[in-house]
Amino acid sequence: MATPRKSQISLADTPYYHCISRCVRRAFLCGEDALTGRSYEHRRDWVESKLLQLARIFCIDVCAYAVMSNHTHVVLHVDRRKAQRLTDKAIVLRWHKLFKGTLLSQRFVQGESLDTAELAALQGRILIYRERLSDISWFMRVLNEGIARQANREDECTGRFWEGRFKSQALLDEAALVACLAYVDLNPIRAKAADLPEQSDYTSVKARIESAKKGKQPSTLMRFVGHPRKPMPKGLPFELRSYLELVEWTGRCMREDKPGYIASDATPILERLDISPVNWLSLTTSFTKVFHGAVGKEQALTTYCQHQHRQRRVDLSNSQALFA
To answer: Which of 165, 182, 258, 297 is 20 to 30 A away from residue 281, measured at CA?
Structure first.
């Protein structure tokens, strides 16, 4: 039986989550329909544009994404502090970029005076908006509903576009996070849709590489801020250059004509996270096959299950083997 979405999200354990949405219809999300010859490649741009737009509205950061032919991968970071820090007016303005809101919220942003009862009702509504703007389920709902409606209008049909709700995995520690980031960024390479990371259209790794050429990081994606330290700025706890080298090295090892070995100039990330090269390849080529729930080392997985009141630690043997 499927686990309720609210039972998969535990911000006390981690703010990072890997989400997957799959297309249910015979016609792929994008690419070319073999029967009609019609191209749906432009829909990948829909997903990428909508995803990055929502990242500017929600208190949720996009760490990585890959828009494939019949499914999408995203790694999200919930910024609960930002949601609590924003003023009431900022919260309402953000919500109005997605929905019309209520008559009271419309009057509030227009600067109209409200009586005591109206203010009390508005505060309750703002509290709901504040929670929703840091809720992964609402983020994925707005993303997927918008794309489904566009596709249905284009196809002149009704019905489901996505295969039920999205799948979610908690990433409980740095090892799980960096493995999942690389897994997502290397999706086009594994699918033989691209030969190099910089040629992988509609992926976060291509966006990062293009910005890195200009000496910058994409403003629409969560930044790489380097190794953990105190005080630790907000961002991914890895060096961008090391991560890009890691993705490149991993992609080379996955090629059929190349043996899986560590090059002399390999990144030190694996050593720092204490993951063997053999296990790393298993993690970045079969992430969703070997893990079906929360992902992390044994201690992180145990703590997560305690917080979620679960007696069984799913995929514990794989965690022990691959993160050893």
So the answer is: 165
CA distances to 138, 175, 197, 223 from 298, rounded to whole Å, are 30, 12, 31, 28
- pLDDT of 168-191, one tens digit each? 999 999 999 999 999 999 998 888
Considering the entire predicted model, what is its pTM?
0.81
Sheet arrangement for strand 167-170: 60-67, 71-78, 16-22, 167-170
Least Cα distance to 180 among 259, 265, 63, 68 occurs for: 63
Confidence check: pLDDT of 213 > 90: no
Cβ pair 3, 293 in contact under 8 A: yes
Are the C-beta atoms of residues 79 and 88 closer than 8 Å to each other?
no
> CA–CA separation, 30 vs 23, rounded Å?
10
Q: Per-residue pLDDT for 309 more than 70?
A: yes
User: How many residues in the chain?
Assistant: 324
> What is the token pair recorded at 207?
């966006």
Predicted confidence at residue 298, as pLDDT, reads 80
pLDDT digits (tens, 9 = 90+) for 290-300: 777 788 788 88
pLDDT above 90 covers a percentage of the chain that reads 41
Closest CA to 147 of 75, 73, 219, 46: 46
- Classify each residue of 301-311 as buried b or exposed e, where b means 16 or more C-beta atoms within 10 Å of its C-beta: bebbbeebeee
Pairing, β 60-67 against β 71-78: antiparallel
Residue (of 179, 91, 174) closest to 135 by Cα position: 91
CB atoms within 10 A of CB 186: 24
Kindly report the average pLDDT of the chain as a whole number: 83
CB atoms within 10 A of CB 70: 16
In b/e form, how buried is each residue of 10-43, taking b as 16+ CB within 10 angstroms? beebbbbbbbbbebebebbbbbeeeeeeeebeeb
Question: What's the alpha-carbon Rg for the chain, to the nearest Å?
Answer: 21
pLDDT digits (tens, 9 = 90+) for 143-153: 999 998 988 88
Residue pair 313/302 in contact (Cβ under 8 Å)? The answer is yes
